[in-house]
Amino acid sequence: MARWTRSRRGTAPAGSGRSGAGEGGSGAASARDGDSGLREALAGVGTTLDEATTCAELTRIAVRLTGGAAAVMRRSGDTVSGYEAVSGDTGALPDTRWAAAVAREAAVPALGAQPEPWTEHTAGRDALCAPLTSGGDAYGVLVWARPGQPPRRAEAELLSLLAERAASHIRHARTYASVHRTAGDLQRALLAEPGRPHPNLDVAVRYLPAGGGVLVGGDWCETVRLHFGRTLLVVGDVMGHGLEAAVDMNAYRSSLRYIASADLPPHRVLRQMDEIASREAELRPATCLLARVDPGRRQVTLASAGHLPPVRITADGVASTVPVPVGPPLGTGLGGYDSATHALAEGETLVLFTDGLVERRGEDIDRSLQRLAAVRFPGGDGLDDVLDLILSRLDARHAEDDVAAMACRPHRRHAVSP
């Protein structure tokens, strides 16, 4: 029958390998070597902000230093997991019911005290559970076992020390994950879907966070219905990343919707947006490209605030960049925006995008744009297919920056009320 006991910290028993001060230089050298090895072991636990990785590092180092087998049982509230991050022989570990009970009972030690491991003694097996406690919370236990050889006092202390180190990093990992989820929820709430264009214009949009993450940054797309069947398309990019960039993106987006409702020419929309943004000291600068598409007249009017030009794809699949006069980014207060009008025939596709789609580290931007213009498109593809092909050919899912892209294609004009 198993017996549960507390393993107490104290001086090492005779023969544990610790040398006294009277043993001269060899004892000092041994102590230094031991301290160096301990620092190296502790540095190997918690190298990332990922909880599962920390647990795997903990068990791997525990087995490397003491032999046997090790696993972690994580605790969240009253819920305790099964064995995770197992290192060594799984069969050497004790019954999970015992370890789970210890994990539930593991309490945070009093201020100034050290967590004390539980040990179990059964026929042919000696197991130890070191609590994972930090910052007033218990995160589970490190379970260790070695058939036929109980842990020495020094080994129990070492395993407890490793568990403390891991628990501190688990606490940071859970805090980071909580903040990450909160920020993601807020950012996704800020990134509203673009408005609906007129029925005479088909539109498709793609957004890819940098690194394949879920967080929204400062890249955005928008469509605004104007009079006489025209639609204003917008792609913008707030400088920087993260939650702050997303908040500023929402501010630019709100001012755009307000200004564009007056049906001003694109360059005047940018001028007013720049004036508003320059009065907000905390607002980050942003680039922006406006494209006012008029399917009835088969033309598009472009204006840019420090943004890359769009790409036009002909009906037979040939792509080319469309010239656009470029003014300074929004928020500088410098003004100086202008517009240019180009033909956009029925069946042609216009693609607006942020720089994350094409820019690559160490590459000239003109060469980056040429890579996009060199893509050939099968005739008759839908807009979603066009964007998917672009993202695939430019390997946008591995881009170093967020990517926003919008494709539009005019078709026969329908009777639309202003």
List keywords for this structure.
418 residues; disordered N terminus; 18 strands; single chain; 25% strand; alpha+beta; six-stranded mixed sheet; 8 helices; seven-stranded antiparallel sheet
What does this entry look like structurally?
With 418 residues, the protein is of the alpha+beta class. It has helices at residues 25-43, 51-66, 96-105, 153-190, 242-260, 266-278, 365-373, 383-393, and strands at residues 3-6, 69-76, 79-80, 84-87, 118-122, 125-134, 137-145, 201-208, 219-225, 231-238, 286-294, 299-305, 311-313, 319-321, 326-327, 340-343, 349-353, 403-410. The strands form 3 sheets. Strands 1, 2, 3, 4, 5, 6 and 7 form a 7-stranded antiparallel sheet that branches. Strands 9, 10, 11, 12, 15 and 16 form a 6-stranded mixed sheet that branches. The radius of gyration is 31 Å and the shape is elongated. The N and C termini lie far apart (85 Å).
Task: Detail the topology: elements first, then pairings.
Layout: E1 3-6, H1 25-43, H2 51-66, E2 69-76, E3 79-80, E4 84-87, H3 96-105, E5 118-122, E6 125-134, E7 137-145, H4 153-190, E8 201-208, E9 219-225, E10 231-238, H5 242-260, H6 266-278, E11 286-294, E12 299-305, E13 311-313, E14 319-321, E15 326-327, E16 340-343, E17 349-353, H7 365-373, H8 383-393, E18 403-410
Helix pairs in contact: 2-4, 4-5, 5-6
